[in-house]
Amino acid sequence: MRIESDSLGTKAVDDAAYYGIHTERARENFPVTSRPVDGRLVKNLILVKEACANANAETGRLAADKHRMIVGACEAILDDFDRFASELRTPAIQGGAGTSTNMNANEVIANLAAEMAGAKKGTYELIHPNDDVNMAQSTNDVYPTAGHMALVEYTTDLLDQLEKTASSFLKLAHEHRFSLKMGRTQLEDAVPTTFGKEFHAYYRVLMRDYKRIEAASASLLEVPLGGTAIGTSICATQEYCDAVVPELRRLSGMPLTQAEDLSDAVQNTDCYVALSSAYKNLATDLIKITNDLRLLGSGPQAGLHELELPKVQAGSSIMPGKVNPVIPEVCAQVAFQVVGNDAAIALASSSGQLELNAFEPVMFNDLFEDASLLRGALLTLKKNCLDHLKVNEQRCAEMAAHSAGLATALSPTIGYRAAAKIAQEAVATGESIEVLLKEKINIPDSKIKELLNPQNLLQPANSSVKLETATMLKR
């Protein structure tokens, strides 16, 4: 064991550890979750450290030998992140606004740089975590910058899967554009539609979600790097502030820009609320869609059974042959979690006081979880449900033919009163609308077929179908 010291005293640290006393204290202080800080945030934080070192060297503040050592350590970590992942592990939810994670990165970079130069870990004589690795920086600008970058990466992956899943609905819409079914309002029979229209509506709402998430993610490309502690750039030079974000943009390949108002960018977290809201919107739409799929696939004998959902696993330990809609179910549960996380993010954002919000760790944790869960839900929905979904066209056609809802389409032709009587009798007798029209209304068979033609049921009223004498009920 080696003994390290800080402003609070001394502490023993494992000789083999690249991390130091600050990391050791964090692991002891925050045993609230076994989940470590997200790997993407940590990787981007290391990239931020490299950009800061380059900017400090460019402006002449960081000596050339120290610059080489810091950059060498950063690149070694990024080239073999798995080797250092266990060293770069502070709890995902932590006090201190992310300071523990920032110091963890500083310590690992400093100790690795020292080791690469032949020195012992923990001495910090060649490279100091604060003076050198953290030069011209604060947790309050580097940590959220890394968080922004990680969120952009997570959101890019989510949007890619969202587009693929939405495209599956578009494909289904094309395949079933002529598949007639009864539409329903308030779970009661309404008027005819097609599965093509139903699937296309799902496609459209998901693509609106895509645009909302894309817009919210774009705002994260503006970062607070250079603002240091509270946006006043204390301990940093103007030359460094001008150079650091362009350098990070070059290293990352992301079109990052420095926030116009660094004080605003350091203390306000509305960009996370906006992204969370866009995630929540997708989640609520996913709940609606998957509930529809479960309802339309219910049965197979005592339910609607308009859809045949893929059978992916046995559904009961006691009921033989039962199969449950587990894919829509898991998607809905993911969505519930995202909605709950949105509430936590709103509370965390609104609880920031004065010049800093100390609750970014939980906001990042929940946003990373949201993006990852939603992507997984959309992936399994596409792969294990939509790609093998079948429409029970015969069942749908039979229900449409016997539904009193068809009477609505007849109102312009035979009048509301006559249509209501036809509807009531259809419900009472179970007879089809076509048969009742032939029995009760003075309309030629050819006109009945024209009235009930699916194209006429689904398009704006065709004036050629109207009959002046059609409202006369047979005596």
UniProtKB/TrEMBL annotation:
Alphabetic keyword roster: Lyase
InterPro entries according to UniProt: Aspartate_Ammonia-Lyase, Fumarase/histidase_N, Fumarase_C_C, Fumarate_lyase_CS, Fumarate_lyase_fam, Fumarate_lyase_N, L-Aspartase-like
Ranges of residues in domain Fumarate lyase N-terminal: 14-340
Domain of life: Bacteria
GO terms (BP aspect): aspartate metabolic process; tricarboxylic acid cycle
Name of a matching Pfam family: FumaraseC_C
Keyword Lyase: yes
The keyword DNA-binding is assigned to this record: no
A Gene Ontology term for the protein's cellular component: cytosol
Domain Fumarase C C-terminal as annotated: residue spans: 406-458
Protein name: Aspartate ammonia-lyase
Originating organism: Ligilactobacillus ruminis (strain ATCC 27782 / RF3) (Lactobacillus ruminis)
Lineage: Bacteria, Bacillati, Bacillota, Bacilli, Lactobacillales
